[in-house]
Structure formats: C-alpha cells, structure tokens
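Colleagues,

For the teaching module next term, I've prepared a clean inverse folding example: a structure given as tokens, and then the sequence designed for it. I'd like students to try predicting residues themselves before seeing the answer, so please don't circulate the second half yet.
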C-alpha cells in the first residue's frame, strides 16, 4: 500500500478516528494509479468493510473526512508554505448493500500528490492491527522517515508532536498524561507490530519538557519475524498481547460427543 509522504505529516483541524484514518488510507491506495488525474474514483464498499464497519459507520467516516480540513506543508519556488485543504471531495455512495462508492480527490490535493517525491509504504495488514489511532499516526510518520539516509532521529516541540499525532485540543494537556496515554501507547504498539523500533526522549529546559526526540531503528531479522508472528495471530490473542494480558480463547465444544465426555 503506497501513500504520498506529504499526506502523512498533516495536522487535522478536527482529529479523525482510527477507523477514519484506515478508510482514508484505503481510498488513497485505491486511487493511486491515477491519483494525478481529476477523475472520479470508484471502490467497492466491501473493500471498506475490511475496517470492520457497517454501512452506517462507513458513512459517518466519509462525512468526517469530507468535513476535515488539513494543514499540509508544501514547497513552492524554494519556500515553505502552509496549505489548508479538504481531505476528501464529493462522493456518491450506492444504496445497495454491496455496491460502490464514487469519490473525488480535491484538486488542491492532487497538485500535491502529483509532485510528490517521498512515499510512505503503509502495510494494510499492519494498519488493521493497531488498537490506537496514535499508533497508526506514528506508524505513518516513521514509514515516511525510515528510508532517509544518515537520519534516525528528529526533534519536535510538544505542539508539533501533538498535531502530528492528532491529539484533540483540550485532551492530554499535561505532558505526563500525553506521555502515558499517547506516546507510550503508540510506541508500545509500534515496537510489537512493526519491523522497526521507536523511542521518545523528553528534552527539558529546567524542569519543563520543551521538546521530544523521536528515534527509530530497523529491527534485526528475528525482531521482524516476531512482529510478523504477532500480526498473524488470532485477533483475540494479538489484542491481549498488545495490552500485556493473557489471551482467553473461546472454548470449542464438540456436541457430537455424549454430554459426559464434553
């Protein structure tokens, strides 16, 4: 699954849910071969149900995507600009249960995608395993950076990192809460599911945390194998391991046997 790098480091003015981001990634991937053309794209609704949502919840996600304005940093004539752009244009959804969704990518976004030079390679299988939207946001950020030469870390202000991880305004305002419920949760899921490790290091000025250093490193072959093994686990087992618990698998009863032998 390929998604333009410029769409990874965006700040949503209205933060999206984990399901919203999954659907948007699928829409971009579906349109990718003709992403630079001002055409109407089509995707089967069943493809979007891979996000485990019913039609009503898919519709709610589409409405949020159409109403979301994102801030994207672009380059023009050697200078940096902030572009405010709608993530998704008009869409027509078939009323049939297993019909198609027809949708447009906004023209202002097409211009960014057409000139894209950096690509984040998002694995759909991994994307569905994340429990936290912060983990998916962090995954997108790292996939954009993992191939950069001579760079394995980057510093962010607290405000920058909150924006990139799409933390809602008014939530997790104390750094202790932001660190515990966002950074640590996201890093823990990444380190268990992905072919690389990440780590956050607070940078203080006096007693106040002013910046956070994000570091990423590729895993060894055994580390990558362990991550893939977890992805391949039954969802009940995987979810329990992500949360640090012991999975409780359903007990299968063979009703062909006499009751005393069950």
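(Answer key — instructors only)
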């Amino acid at each position: 699954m390929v998604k333009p790098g410029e769409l990874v480091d965006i700040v949503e003015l209205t933060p999206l849910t984990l399901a919203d981001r999954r659907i948007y990634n699928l829409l971009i991937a579906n349109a990718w071969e003709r992403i630079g053309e001002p055409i109407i794209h089509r995707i089967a609704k069943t493809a979007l149900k891979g996000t485990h949502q019913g039609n009503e919840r898919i519709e709610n996600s589409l409405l949020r995507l159409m109403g979301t304005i994102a801030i994207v940093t672009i380059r023009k004539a050697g200078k940096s600009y902030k572009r405010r752009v709608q993530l998704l244009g008009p869409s027509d959804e078939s009323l049939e249960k297993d019909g198609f969704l027809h949708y447009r990518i906004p023209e202002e976004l097409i211009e960014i995608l057409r000139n894209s030079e950096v690509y984040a390679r998002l694995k759909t299988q991994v994307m569905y395993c994340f429990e936290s939207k912060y983990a998916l946001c962090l995954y997108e950020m790292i996939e954009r950076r993992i191939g950069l030469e001579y760079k394995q870390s980057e510093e962010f202000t607290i405000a920058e990192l909150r924006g990139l991880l799409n933390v809602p305004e008014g939530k997790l305002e104390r750094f202790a809460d932001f660190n515990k419920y966002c950074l640590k949760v996201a890093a823990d899921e990444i380190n268990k599911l992905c072919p690389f490790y990440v780590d956050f290091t607070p940078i203080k000025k006096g007693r106040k945390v002013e910046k956070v250093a994000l570091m990423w490193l590729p895993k060894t072959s055994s580390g990558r194998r362990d991550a893939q093994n977890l992805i391949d686990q039954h969802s009940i087992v995987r979810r329990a391991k992500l949360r640090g618990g012991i999975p409780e698998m359903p007990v299968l009863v063979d009703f062909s046997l006499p009751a005393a032998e069950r």
